[in-house]
Design goal:
This protein folds into three domains: 202 residues, ANL, N-terminal domain (Rossmann fold), CATH 3.40.50; 163 residues, Rossmann fold, CATH 3.40.50.980; 99 residues, ANL, C-terminal domain (GMP Synthetase, Chain A, domain 3), CATH 3.30.300.30. 28% of the residues lie in helices and 25% in strands. It contains 17 helices and 28 strands. InterPro entries: AMP-bd_C, AMP-bd_C_sf, AMP-binding_CS, AMP-dep_synth/lig_dom, ANL_N_sf. This is 4-coumarate--CoA ligase. Pathway: Phytoalexin biosynthesis; 3,4',5-trihydroxystilbene biosynthesis; 3,4',5-trihydroxystilbene from trans-4-coumarate: step 1/2.
């Protein structure tokens, strides 16, 4: 264990991974190997990996496939076209698209030149997308015809050129002849180009920026996260360690958005490097997902908690309608699963292993994970620290590093930690310290066996008369009520006490429980300062693509009438 720290003089507890000398937790997993060649780009690294499968990507709706051979030939063709357009190292290219088999193709073509991919949610408003464009200043954008209106302003007022992506699923494309749009071609045209060995290609290193992803902004303004080629290569080595043990051809379904770190890291890069086949859903639909599992004999199913919970609730109906016998593993990220959910899933799907994970955009998709069913049965945990990752638990008020089983802010350090926030030195300085430690903003503890437990978001703690109340604790209790389908707890401002807990609750279909009954239910289980003092019923809890509750939206709703 001592060798992981890089200092043989340090004594590390082999059970917890904790070193008292420097108050640091070291990963109990075997370290990953990193490239010794500093002049290496991410695309070259992925393309050089061996693979078992023949097919890289399948469009679940149309059945259109990209073999590995075709995929890498198209990357060369598109890279050649981009180079001839003048795209160079350091240029930013925007990718505005739903999930698509062409998403990885564009991403890796851009990255191969040392240029930078920035992605955005297709559901974002024109104003939100324009704001990101204003911040990141892309010189080129790839999008589908249906999303062109969201780029019209940026294209007409700036220098943004647009390349159209194929959209075989829409039979009625909009008119793209608007003079406000600077459309310069299509991806299909670029894919037909003969690759050129003499194209301009700048020297790219592990430290150069590969992506500019904008954080979810669940607690504040969205910020551009700068991740390097080295960050993603370390993440791919992590993915390879976790999922690359099988000798058979693995088939995954891309159920989460590719514009998000979860989807980008897994489906656009990690699984491609493993040589696995990815079946792509353009948007999530439970029936489409289950049909894809049945049709393509999917073995791995990545999910977020709300979808997994829905699968458990409808398990009997699902198993009657779909053949899911090929499924061997479910991967769940976004929030730890409760004992009830895990046991419910195992009861309904006894031959399927649940694996969980914890990560941030700022940690390039790495952080902690459970890699076996046994580890996942340590209920409530996010897992063991990722390979080559170090952690600290720090008192947010004093800055003092804490010990095993003590709760504080989780700090992370390792090869996947971001370079910083784009054009935001203040935010970078407040999140990354001079030693490279990332302040996650998550309130956590690590137990005697090295397992990480997330208590809550630090910034979302409710301060009631100086006492700290964790929304996640109250939400877990609420979800234990038989008549409650979903719930979220937020801080509600009050002149006398500062803040008090307010709950938004989704009733289960056919139930009529009252707000008073819900508050009484919680009051019997918590200390007086933790009681819910205001409650509203709502049709659904707003969440981001990774399943995190959008508390800021609920806070805005709750305080709009003050």
């Amino acid at each position: 264990m001592a060798q992981q720290s890089g200092d043989p003089q340090l004594t590390i507890d082999p059970r917890s991974g904790f070193c008292k000398t420097n108050s640091t937790f070291y990963s109990k997993r075997k370290p990953i190997s990193l490239p010794t060649n500093h002049a290496l780009d991410l695309t070259t690294f992925i393309s050089s990996r061996p693979h078992h499968a023949k097919v890289a990507f399948i469009d679940a709706t149309t059945g259109h496939q990209l073999t590995f051979a075709d995929f890498w030939r198209y990357v060369e063709s598109v890279s050649t076209c981009l180079s001839e357009m003048g795209i160079r190292k350091g240029h930013v290219v925007l990718l505005l698209s739903p999930n698509s088999i062409f998403f990885p193709l564009v991403s890796l073509s851009v990255i191969s030149l040392g240029a930078i991919i920035t992605t955005t949610n297709p559901l974002n408003t024109t104003q939100e997308i324009t704001k990101q464009i204003s911040d990141s200043k892309p010189v080129l954008a790839f999008t589908i015809p249906q999303l062109l209106p969201k780029l019209a302003h940026a294209s007409s007022t700036g220098n943004l050129k647009i390349v159209l992506l194929p959209d075989h699923q829409n039979q009625n494309p909009p008119n793209t002849n608007s003079t406000d749009l600077r459309i310069i071609g299509t991806l299909e045209e670029m894919m037909k180009r003969e690759p050129s060995e003499t194209r301009v290609k700048d020297r790219v290193t592990l430290d150069d920026t590969a992506t500019l992803l904008y954080s979810s902004g669940t607690t504040g303004v969205s910020k551009g996260v700068i991740s390097s080629h080295g960050n993603f290569i370390a993440l791919i080595q992590n993915v390879s360690r976790r999922f690359g043990k099988s000798e058979q051809e693995e088939i995954y379904v891309a159920t989460v958005p590719m514009f998000h770190i979860y989807g980008l890291a897994a489906f656009t890069m990690g699984l491609l490097a493993l040589g696995s086949t990815v079946v792509v859903l353009s948007k999530f639909d439970m029936a489409d997902m289950l049909s894809a599992v049945q049709k393509y004999r999917v073995t791995y199913l990545p999910l977020v908690p709300p979808i997994l919970i829905g699968l458990v609730n409808k398990a009997d109906e699902v198993k009657k309608k779909y053949d899911l016998s090929s499924l061997r593993t479910v991967l769940c990220g976004g929030a730890p699963l409760s004992k009830e959910v895990i046991e419910g899933f195992v009861d309904k799907f006894p031959n399927v292993t649940i694996m969980q994970g914890y990560a941030l955009t700022e940690s390039t998709g790495a952080g902690a994970s459970t890699d076996t069913m046994e580890e996942s049965r340590r209920y409530g945990t996010a897992g063991l620290l990722s390979p080559s990752t170090e952690g600290r638990i720090v008192d947010p008020d004093t800055g003092k590093s804490l010990l095993v089983n003590q709760t504080g802010e989780l700090w992370l350090k390792g090869p996947t930690i971001m370079k910083g926030y784009f054009s935001n030195e203040e935010a970078t300085a407040s999140t990354l310290n001079s030693e490279g430690w990332l302040r996650t903003g998550d309130l956590c503890y690590i137990d005697d066996d090295g397992f990480l437990f997330i208590v809550d978001r630090l910034k979302e703690l409710i301060k009631y008369k100086g006492y700290q109340v964790a929304p996640a604790e109250l939400e877990a209790l609420l979800l234990g009520h038989p008549e409650i389908a979903d719930a979220a707890v937020i801080p509600f401002p009050d002149k006398e006490v500062g803040q008090f807990p307010m709950a938004y609750v989704v009733r289960k279909s056919g139930t009529t429980i009252s707000g008073t009954a819900v508050m009484d239910f919680i009051a019997k289980q918590v200390a007086p300062y933790k009681r819910i003092r205001k409650l509203a019923f709502i049709s659904s809890i707003p969440k981001n693509p990774s399943g995190k509750i959008l508390r800021k939206d609920l806070i805005k709703l709750a305080t709009s009438k003050l």
